[in-house]
Amino acid sequence: MHEAADGPLARIRLPGGAISADRLRELADCATDLGSGVIELTSRANVQVRGLRSPAAFAERIAAAGLLPSAAHERVRNIVASPLGGRGPDGLLDTQPVVEALDRALCARPRLAGLPGRFLFAVDDGTGDMRGLGADVTFVPVTAAGRVSRGRLLLAGSDAGLTVPVDSAVQHLIAAAAAFLDERERGLADSDRAAWRIGELKDGPARIAARLGTESGLDLLPAAAAQESQDPGAPVRESRDIVPDASARESRDVVQVGPVLHAGRVGQRNGRVALEAVVPLGRLTAAQAHAIAHEAVPVRFTPWRTVVLLDLSSAAADRAARVLEAAGLVTDPASPWVGVSACTGRPGCAKSLADVQEDARRWVATLDGPPATPVHWAGCERRCGLPRGQVVQMVATADGYTTDGLAVGGHQERQQ
After folding, report:
1. Are residues 153 and 246 in the same domain?
2. Of the residues 326, 355, 375, which one is the last residue of a structural domain?
3. Is residue 47 part of a domain?
4. Which one-letter DSSP state was computed for residue 257?
5. DSSP class of residue 379?
6. Dihedral, CA of residue 130, residue 404, residue 204 and residue 85, to nearest 10
7. What is the model's pLDDT at position 262?
8. Residue 373 is part of which domain span?
9. For residues 166 and 139, what is the distance between their CA atoms, to the nearest angstrom?
10. Is the pLDDT of residue 247 over 70?
11. Cβ neighbours of residue 93 closer than 8 Å, sequence gap 6 or more
């Protein structure tokens, strides 16, 4: 819970951005019954509800719906994952079992409740869409001889040369988080003890990698191992969370950052269809949430404030697109809404100098198509919710807006 200018605000973590239809309906009903009626999407694929009239009643209903498995760990259950979860053309790994196991392991360790609220885990399915988020710890699967049995562990978005077995990915992600707490407490520099992220530690990635290599007791493989093709005749241990590489590429040790979808359909490798919809300015009404839940398929919210419906038939995808568009969501990749984001602004944020949501809407109405570069509207110099990557930043001042031009965005989750 947080206090905002428009009243109490609750943020609910959704590991991997995943939410069932039943839970989405309950979340929408809670927002209507006890809050502003709007569900806001955050840059970590979490959600938040503003203007709560009874925070205690809201928390009770959210817990009863199964969305609060550990009150002690709620602030640190920050896990993002590739929304297609291995289903897309370049997907290698079904990320959801890994995400669920990671969430359970995180909540089972009392010490990890002490992680800073900005610490972020990421699980990439092999497309590379999570690599650009700069998470503190990211697992990226790699292939050898057309199979997936290993992956790279990235620290603060950089490749630290750590290769780990897929079956022990969760243990390594947890060990990296514990190593961060160890290094922060050790405090080689004065700033270390105040660090919220691995990247804020002096030489953080190198220190975490060294600690994992000497103290974790886990099965770290030499980085060169992932570059060696396996013997085609040797047995390969598979687990239920591994999706074989159907294209049978012999090696893909270097995983490039994959394209990020914005809106529209994508064919899944199993013949089904995924449909991605932009949620304008990341504000989902209760009616829109119910329209999404009505499809009764797996739902994933994304760090770029869209929603993905998975495992649709072609006919169901067509029908869902019509329903979502009628509800005010955007499934056309040529829409002017693609690539436009904004912070909360007035009246929800006391620090904001403008009603950026309304200003952004008026600006979008003048466009014929998506902006050439993503545009983020911010109510003050804090620039909350700023997406990562190249972003044109419209920043409110006392005299209007300044345009920073093409700037490299950050990854903040502050929304108030």
Report:
1. yes
2. 326
3. yes
4. P
5. S
6. -10
7. 82
8. 340-409
9. 9
10. no
11. 85, 86, 123, 124, 125, 126, 141, 148, 151, 166, 241, 242, 243
Pair (385, 287) in one structural domain: no
Pick the more confident residue, 254 or 336. Answer: 336
Lowest mean pLDDT across 277-286, 302-311, 386-395: 386-395
* Whether residues 103 and 126 fall in one domain: yes
Given the DSSP bridges, would you call strands 79-81 and 121-123 parallel, antiparallel or unpaired? parallel
331 located within any domain: no
Instruction: Tell me: pLDDT of 242 over 50.
Output: no
Q: Are residues 392 and 276 in the same domain?
A: no
Give residue 55's pLDDT.
94
Q: Which of 139, 135, 113, 107 is nearest to 43 (CA)?
A: 135
The pair of three-digit structure tokens given for residue 176, joined into one six-digit string = 């990296």
| Element of type H or E holding 309 | strand 306-312
Selection from 170, 394, 123 nearest residue 281 by Cα: 394
Residue 254, token pair as written in the block: 């270097």
CA nearest 77: which of 37, 42, 121, 24?
121
What is the rounded CA–CA span in Å between residue 383 and residue 401?
Answer: 12
* Residue 192 DSSP SS3: helix
- Count of domains in the chain? 3
Q: Within a domain: residue 61?
A: yes
Could you read off the pLDDT of 189-213 as tens digits, one per residue? 778 888 999 999 999 999 999 999 8
Distance, in Å, from the CA atom of 155 to the CA atom of 212, rounded to the nearest integer, reads 11
Tell me whether residue 415 is in a domain.
Answer: no
CA angle 400, 401, 407 (to 5 degrees): 170
d(CA 281, CA 348): 14
